[in-house]
TrEMBL record:
Originating species: Hyalella azteca (Amphipod)
Protein family according to the UniProt entry: Belongs to the V-ATPase H subunit family.
Molecular-function GO terms, alphabetical: proton-transporting ATPase activity, rotational mechanism
Bias (Basic and acidic residues): 181-196
Protein name: V-type proton ATPase subunit H
InterPro entries hit by this protein: ARM-like, ARM-type_fold, ATPase_V1-cplx_hsu, ATPase_V1-cplx_hsu_C, ATPase_V1-cplx_hsu_C_sf
Keywords: Hydrogen ion transport, Ion transport, Transport
Pfam families: V-ATPase_H_C, V-ATPase_H_N
PANTHER family per record: V-TYPE PROTON ATPASE SUBUNIT H
Role: Subunit of the V1 complex of vacuolar(H+)-ATPase (V-ATPase), a multisubunit enzyme composed of a peripheral complex (V1) that hydrolyzes ATP and a membrane integral complex (V0) that translocates protons. V-ATPase is responsible for acidifying and maintaining the pH of intracellular compartments and in some cell types, is targeted to the plasma membrane, where it is responsible for acidifying the extracellular environment. Subunit H is essential for V-ATPase activity, but not for the assembly of the complex.
Polar residues bias spans: 198-207
Region (Disordered) residue spans: 181-211
Sequence ranges assigned to domain ATPase V1 complex subunit H C-terminal in this UniProt record: 369-484
Quaternary structure note: V-ATPase is a heteromultimeric enzyme made up of two complexes: the ATP-hydrolytic V1 complex and the proton translocation V0 complex.
Length: 498
């Protein structure tokens, strides 16, 4: 059984460990903290109060006055941070304030509750608002430092984020994952923006997903790794199509092994929610992780991927779902990869245990596997190929009607594959199966017309790949022949009437 050791001993801080030490955000934070802010000028220009000025001086003194302040006047410290973050517009100053705050939190996580205490002193205030508003600023370092601080507040504080605040924060994190590595032109544009003063934009509808790359994506992943250990956050993230986003990012192949590991870790943590684990197979998790497993050269990526597979078998309370997951893993060549991995010697005992467990369960699942179950698994995986069932006339005579089950589930998936897939092999097999369904199921043509399947097939008559064109042409012919056969039978019935 996969142990929770990795889950429970994961670094509490979003940037601890070797990966955190080398992250761009951590490197930049170290540089920012070395800079000195001219607080007297802010006081003279009335951009900060005398009280805030004194608080910042004590925090920077790193002496007994600092410790006394943080022990006895935490709400006042929180009030100062909120005031400065809400009124200062200069990026470099905002960055310094955030890095200083993050340092204070890392030294003593209990200090986070000073923001809750401050909010209680001022009725109607919300401890999250000032931080969430800063997520709309154009400077990426600022927004990702805010995300880092918020993740600590959500996980270490005594109050959980919820409602529209949580939705906004998780949506922001999800959108950052969708971005690709930043181009040089974008970086120059961003650096130019940093030199100009900006005001804090309002939250709500003003937020837009980032148009270009995210150089701090590792920070985003670490925030999610922290948040998704807590079940209410898992549930909220899943409802926002978080799994879909993670699968899309992993499937893009644009990120290194570190990001692969972090995002797969997020999927693993999500599977500890039984309801989420039962729905994972609907979002292409198994095919995507199957590809990662076959290409992985890093032991930690292999370990966490195997752990996800194990949970997808153990965590669902519905045994049918667990079996379907096993079958889909077989379909995605996981069993073959396990045979290769079994020949390696791993230092981590969990890897060996997971390999043995998965191999045993997958072998058992295929012993009594019917041809139709094999076909279902292949279609649902989206990895269509010329397996024997497609060419078997007996299979289609006996099973064509089963494509109508669960409100035409398999038929709809075939049509969706024809609409979305760019793989000529998948398109060829899907067109072939649509033709076979039309040929062997009496009302097939009518059903396909209702589901826009006929139009999808005809659209591929001009496909660039000759094999796709060929299978589409055969399918269209079967649709037309079926139409004439049906018409002929109707005429015969009419002529037989007295």
């Amino acid at each position: 059984m996969t142990k929770l050791s990795e889950f429970s001993t994961m670094p509490e801080d979003v940037d601890r460990g070797s990966a955190g030490a080398t992250s761009l955000l951590a490197q930049r934070a170290n540089e920012v903290l070395k800079e000195k802010i001219n607080w007297p000028s802010y006081l003279q220009s009335q951009m900060m109060s005398q009280e805030d000025f004194e608080v910042m001086n004590k925090l920077e003194s790193r002496g007994s006055a600092r410790e006394t302040l943080l022990l006895q006047q935490r709400p006042l410290v929180a009030k100062t941070f909120i005031s400065l973050l809400s009124h200062v517009s200069k990026d470099s100053t905002i960055q310094y304030i955030l890095v200083l705050l993050d340092e204070l939190i890392s030294e003593d996580p209990s200090r986070l509750d000073m923001f809750r205490e401050n909010a209680r002193k001022h009725k109607g205030e919300n401890q999250w608002t000032a931080f969430l508003n800063l997520l709309t600023r154009p400077d990426p370092f600022t927004t990702h430092m805010i995300a880092r601080i918020l993740s600590k507040m959500c996980c270490w504080g005594t109050e959980r984020m919820e409602g529209s605040d949580l939705t906004f924060y998780l949506t922001w994190l999800k959108d950052q994952l969708r971005t690709t590595p930043e181009r040089d032109a974008d970086k120059k544009s961003r650096d130019a923006d940093k030199k100009s003063k900006t005001t804090t934009p309002a939250r709500s509808s003003s937020y837009r997903p980032p148009p270009d790359g995210n150089e701090y994506v590792q920070c985003v992943c670490r925030c999610l790794q922290m948040l998704l250990r807590i079940d209410p956050y898992r549930d909220a993230f899943f409802k926002l199509d978080g799994v879909v986003t993670i699968v899309q990012v992993l499937g893009s192949g644009k990120h290194n092994f570190q990001i692969q590991y972090q995002l797969t870790f997020c999927l693993w943590v999500l599977t500890f929610n039984h309801e989420i684990a039962e729905k994972m197979n609907k979002y292409g998790v198994i095919p995507t992780l199957g590809d990662i497993l076959s290409e992985s050269v890093k032991e930690k990526v292999t370990r966490i991927t195997l752990a996800v597979f194990r949970n997808l078998i153990e965590k669902p309370q519905d045994s049918i779902i667990s079996r379907d997951n096993c079958i889909q893993m077989v379909q995605c060549k996981v069993l073959k990869q396990l045979e290769i991995l079994a020949q390696h010697k791993f230092d981590d005992e969990d890897i060996t245990a997971d390999i043995e467990f998965l191999n045993d369960r997958l072998q058992t699942s295929i012993q009594d596997l019917s041809s139709f179950e094999e076909y279902c698994s292949e279609v649902k995986s989206g990895r269509m190929e010329w397996s024997p069932v497609h060419k078997s006339e007996k299979f289609w005579r006996e099973n064509c009607h089963r494509l109508n089950e669960k409100n035409y589930e398999l038929l709809k998936i075939l049509i969706q594959l024809m609409e979305t897939s760019t793989d000529p092999l998948v398109l060829s097999v899907a067109c072939h199966d649509i033709g076979q369904y039309s040929r062997h199921y009496a009302a097939g043509k009518k059903v396909l017309e209702q589901l826009d399947g006929k139009q999808c097939v005809m659209a591929h008559l001009s496909h660039s790949d000759p094999n796709v064109r060929y299978e589409a042409l055969l399918a269209v012919q079967k649709l037309m022949v079926h139409n004439w056969e049906y018409l002929g039978k109707q005429i015969e019935k009419e002529s037989e009437k007295p």
